[in-house]
From TrEMBL:
The keyword DNA-binding does not apply. This is Peroxisomal coenzyme A diphosphatase NUDT7. InterPro entries: CoAse (IPR045121), NUDIX_hydrolase-like_dom_sf (IPR015797), NUDIX_hydrolase_dom (IPR000086), NUDIX_hydrolase_NudL_CS (IPR000059). It comes from Ceyx cyanopectus (Indigo-banded kingfisher). It catalyses: butanoyl-CoA + H2O = S-butanoyl-4'-phosphopantetheine + adenosine 3',5'-bisphosphate + 2 H(+); a 5'-end CoA-ribonucleoside in mRNA + H2O = a 5'-end phospho-adenosine-phospho-ribonucleoside in mRNA + (R)-4'-phosphopantetheine + 2 H(+); hexanoyl-CoA + H2O = hexanoyl-4'-phosphopantetheine + adenosine 3',5'-bisphosphate + 2 H(+); acetyl-CoA + H2O = S-acetyl-4'-phosphopantetheine + adenosine 3',5'-bisphosphate + 2 H(+). SUPFAM superfamilies: Nudix. Its cofactor is Mg(2+); Mn(2+). Keywords: Hydrolase, Magnesium, Manganese, Metal-binding, Peroxisome, RNA-binding. Residues 38-170 form the Nudix hydrolase domain. It comes from the Eukaryota.
Amino acid sequence: LAVSRRSFPFASRNRIKEKARRRLREFDVGDKFSLLPLPKASVLLPLIVREGKLHLLLTLRSMQLRRSPGEVCFPGGKSEATDKDEIDTALREAKEEVGLQPEKVEVICRLVPGLDKMNHLVTPVVAFIEDTFQATPNPDEVSDVFVVPLEYFIKPLNYKPLPYKTSAGSLSWMHCFMYDDRERQHSYKIWGLTAHFAVFLALVIFGKRPTFEVNYDLDNLISSSEKNFLDLYASLFERKKSNL
């Protein structure tokens, strides 16, 4: 009996992972957007199974950084000439920032990219990491590492949309979550592109309607997410042309 009780969490953890893998592979864009003529960056979306639930690992940027100091983000950064592809970039950055060894990472897929404030093409790389992972943050880049239940990004306790001007100059809304980590007695603000990727990941894996508005056709999530991105990309080029 002792053996079966021990193996049960293992079996249920494998079931949770397998279900998520199946869903994620349907949404894998591979290198579909890799040739777009924009500077490249990647982020790793590390999934962990804890207490029978999927959690997402996030970092808090160091206050010493020039860009977005003290903001919540995923491990990641700009691509370097030695990186083979977006996956390579995400793994290298995660190792540099939080001490995550690439061989301890099970990469599942690449999702539809986003554009950051500097108009980098940012590719989210989704992966599983072990629940035993102990982060060793690089203090020059990361001041904190924490996890949030993935379900929080479709059923949040504290959410508000923030208005912002798109690169095309029109008014839009971005997700903003406040997450209270009781263990750490700290409240984290998760917004912008980081929140955008977290929401999309939760929509893909759970296939449920969120408790707030999203600008996707939830019945056609793959095509509508790609269309949203291509519209954004097109508006960027319209703007570049009009600035000439």
